[in-house]
Amino acid sequence: MAMLADAVAIKASTFQFFTRNPRGGSAKARDLEDERKFVSEREGAGIEAILAHAPYTLNPCSADPGVRDFALRVMVDDMERLEGVPGSLYVFHPGSHVGQGIEKGIELIAEFLNKILKSEQSTFVMLETMAGKGSEVGSRFEELRAIIDRVSLKEKLGVCLDTCHVSDAGYDITGDLEGVLKHFDSVIGLGRLRAIHINDSKNPLGSHKDRHAPIGEGTLGMKTFESVVNHPALRDLPFFLETPNELPGYAKEIALLRTLAK
Ligand code: FE
Ligand code: FE
Ligand code: ZN
């Protein structure tokens, strides 16, 4: 599996991948042999959690039933495929309510998840914390909580915190990481936090922009990442880089983050 070899080459202990074209919906045919190879080699390669990311183009809370149905078909297919690599993580953007209002968006996303999640699946699904661009749902912890509250199979559902997104959403992880995590805990519960997207941001706190920057080169800065990778509530979670980089850049950032970790 090419992704496994790349991850090993840059000394990663985990990686994220898109289940299909991130800006479309088409996926390659399944390669069962490749899946088996990955499952048998991952341990020796030191790859722990792997995280599959749904395409950006899905909108589970669109006003258009056809768009919602497309998202449903894609995610049902993703869930089936991921069973080839048992115990994977899966993350998706909750969606944009496009004028229907937050409440309606929350309702549609929960309804959607109630169709996706199955008690027999081994994949753990996560809502991503969003920057709050346009009419995105999920930029406030309360919105994610409201979705979780309406989902039946809560044990299959958690949250992936994106450091760029939460800052863009107005949570000051640079000035008060402890306070933000306390708030997360009281609203959602830190037990549901299962992965971190570790990205710097090109824009200031509360900008609602969602433009990622390389680690230490954005408005969050190195000190923030030092606090993030060492915080007792976060340090044992899998971290995934989504910075604007190619493989050599990621290798450097992984090495850098390891030097920050005490
Ligand atoms: Fe994402
Ligand atoms: Fe992200
Ligand atoms: Zn983003």
Please tell me what the overall shape is: globular
Rg is 18 Å
SSE sequence, one letter per element: HEHEHEHEHEHHEEEHEH
Q: What low-confidence regions span 5 or more consecutive residues with pLDDT below 50?
A: none
Query: What's the level 1 CATH class?
Result: Alpha Beta
How are the strands of the largest sheet arranged? 1-2-3-4-5-6-9
Give the termini distance in whole angstroms.
Answer: 32 Å
**Under the CATH scheme, which architecture would be assigned?**
Alpha-Beta Barrel
- Helicity range: 25-40%
Structure description:
- This protein has 262 residues and is α/β, with parallel strands linked by helices.
- The chain has a single domain (2-260), classed as TIM Barrel, CATH 3.20.20.
- Helices cover 39% and strands 14% of the residues.
- β2 (50-53), α3 (65-82) and β3 form a beta-alpha-beta unit.
- α4 (102-116) packs across α5 (141-149).
- The protein is globular.
- 40% of the residues are buried.
- The structure holds fe (iii) ion (2 copies) and zinc ion.
- One fe (iii) ion binds next to loops.
